[in-house]
């Protein structure tokens, strides 16, 4: 995903760059309104719109918090599903904020990721260390660190036919696709969060990631 999108770097000539998944349906008004918002808010480095699944449900991955140890724990333990409106437990998907409310977020989903060319020139494009998943989190991190705001703007929307772009990987790539998400967790933690936490927290986080990897390996053994 990262390497494929970065090919555009050699061809983009405009002021704005939109990373848009191939399994999305977008209205002309969505692009027009989001660019207008960027033009009127120069402190915004990136933004997304409301992302809707074919079922009509909201795609919660459209807006996320950075997966710090606490936020990752509440997410993978299921606490954010048990207390979906709690500011303490539901921070990963911003469950305590209505999906119809405009607000600042940490992370944008790569399905619709609008940013400025000058921002990408400043912080870099997608990190190709990530094969699949995680590259949008890492880019969001660098944009925020550079002092820009990242905005979720639900007044316009797209439809996301989720996972259609990576459906049925060829047999030799099945392991790589299955392990991509959990491998990205480890890459991101070591790159961005390792230095921010004491060693015992880091050991616990890496142990948890290791357990997730074992679970994915067992999944590969299933027919």
Automatic annotation (TrEMBL):
DNA repair as UniProt keyword: no
Query: What Pfam families would the database entry show?
Result: Glyco_tranf_2_3
Claim: Transferase is one of the keywords in the record: yes
User: Which InterPro entries would you find in this protein's record?
Assistant: Nucleotide-diphossugar_trans
User: Any idea which GO molecular function terms this record carries?
Assistant: transferase activity
Keyword annotations for this protein, in alphabetical order, are: Transferase
- Give the signal peptide, or none: none
Q: Which PANTHER family match?
A: RHAMNOSYLTRANSFERASE WBBL
Q: What is this protein called?
A: Glycosyl transferase family 2
Recite the lineage of the species. Answer: Bacteria, Candidatus Woeseibacteriota
């Amino acid at each position: 995903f990262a390497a494929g999108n970065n090919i555009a770097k050699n061809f983009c000539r405009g002021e704005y760059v939109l990373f848009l998944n191939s399994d999305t349906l977008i209205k002309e008004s969505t692009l027009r309104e989001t660019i207008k918002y960027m033009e009127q808010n120069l402190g915004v480095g990136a933004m997304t719109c409301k992302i809707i699944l074919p079922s009509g449900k909201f795609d919660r991955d459209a807006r996320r918090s950075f997966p710090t140890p606490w936020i990752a724990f509440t997410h993978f333990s299921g606490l954010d599903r048990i207390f979906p409106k709690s500011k303490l437990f539901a921070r990963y998907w911003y469950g305590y904020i209505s999906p119809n409310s405009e607000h600042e977020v940490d992370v944008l989903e790569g399905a619709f990721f609008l940013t400025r060319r000058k921002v990408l020139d400043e912080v870099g494009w997608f990190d190709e260390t990530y094969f699949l998943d995680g590259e949008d989190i890492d880019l969001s991190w660098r944009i925020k660190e550079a002092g820009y705001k990242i905005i979720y703007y639900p007044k316009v929307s797209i439809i996301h036919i989720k996972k259609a772009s990576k459906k049925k990987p060829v047999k030799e790539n099945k392991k790589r696709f299955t392990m991509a998400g959990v491998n990205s967790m480890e890459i991101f933690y070591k790159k961005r969060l390792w230095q921010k936490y004491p060693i015992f927290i880091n050991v616990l986080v890496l142990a948890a990631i290791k357990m997730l990897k074992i679970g994915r390996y067992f999944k590969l053994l299933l027919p």
